[in-house]
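Build the 3D complex.
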Amino acid sequence: MAKERKGIEVSLAISEAVCQADVDVVSAYPITPQTHIVEHLSELVADGHLDAEFVPVESEHSAMSVCVGSSAVGARSFTSTSSQGLALMAEIFFITSSLRLPVVMALANRSLSGPLSIWNDHTDTMMVRDAGWIHVFVDNGQEAYDHIFWAFRVAEDKGVRLPVAVNLDGFIMTHMIEPIDFEDTELIKKYLPPHRMEGALHPDNPLSMGCFAMPEMYTETQAARDHALLNSYPVCLKAWDEWAALTGRKYLPIETYRTEDAEYCIVTMGSFGETAMNAIDELRAEGEKVGGIRIRLWRPFPFDDFFRAAAGKKYLIVLDRAISFGGPGGPVALEVRNALYKKTKAPTVVDYVAGLAGRDVAVNDFKKIILEGKAKAEKGKTKGYTLYGLRSS
Amino acid sequence: MAKPMEKISWQELEIGAAVSEVGNAMEYKTGSWRSLKPVVNASQCIRCGVCWIFCPDTSIVRAADGHFEADLEYCKGCGICAHECPVGCITMVSEEEV
Ligand code: SF4
Ligand code: SF4
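Done.
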């Protein structure tokens, strides 16, 4: 593919990126709202644009299992899922990272049952937050396209060797038609060299993966896994830097918008970030000193970057898209409070949960949340979380 | 295995805790899990090797005189060999009795 700007559905742009990344194996089951991604990939393979095995499995449990097998022999492997599909593959999802296999997944975020809902929130990805994968959140179609290459680049790095989930909001992003700058395939080749994995399964070099561990060994294996994830952080940065050098599009683990002189900020993850920018602009025009902080890298969590972005602010209004039931509030707010814990002059955190299962959160809602959150922080009403838009309180 | 399990640090593990040392299960004596052990009547054994094929733990070894018997360092006492032996010369005997 040559360099050009195209109006295209984001799901299809992701499939095109997977094609340009020259993957060897695609294994997936169609599930709303991820379906278009794998549907288009099956066409790309069938039409000979992508020389890969397309394995149309009977369930997501198998989709991830196939990726584990293909990745273990050193094949560049991709899958995609959502919600219940992720729940069904959860068992193997954990195994992928424990075996340190560089599988890449597009995770079209959607609520989990029940009640059954096909629309977007972050409940599904929060379920696998602690599975040992690298998690990145993209905000628009261009970022989704770019991060497929980034994900393979980081996953396959010799020092990382971990699976990567590219999280994108279901429907809100997957089904949007957006203008996207496609890169030349030659440039992609420069950025993403062919995959050569040391220690892949091969008859000439026998080894066993996924062995049984006695209580004397299990703790050590988990320490190694956690260190691998934490140590992937500099590689994530380097991969973004090199992408910026080639394309001019720069990404950071924590991104900020009008924060320099901001007294308080709204903290978002995923596509909320873009709408928040509009709300921030409008509130700025009304004299509010508000800024925005977007968490792009969720795992490994960039604690220091986050603290730098938040330092000196009075309040942080965190907008979560999932509930940690029976816990302290939303999972992002939980993380943010932890990042700020015991820091001197830490901002006060107010936690809002909004946009569950596709309920619309428009610019005006953001403005309300920001102003209401600020008022709550000023009054010290920061306990628990607020479910925005709930009809009775 | 280069080191006993309880001395291995996390830094020494292979990526993904893979085991690259083929055959290291030899290091782990697992025979103590057993409650019954197979005893072969050597004079009846026709040396057909059926027990050797069926043992899920590859615990059957060939004795010096050519008949087959269980290596009790690894045998789990499942009794499959006794069940499969065509001449019925293997008896499962309680560990406590012998
Ligand atoms: S009892 Fe089971 S484990 Fe032991 S030698 Fe017979 S078949 Fe093998
Ligand atoms: S199956 Fe029975 S007869 Fe055949 S080798 Fe084993 S013990 Fe001997």
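The interface with chain A takes residues 5-6, 8-11, 13-20, 22 of chain B (CB under 8 Å).
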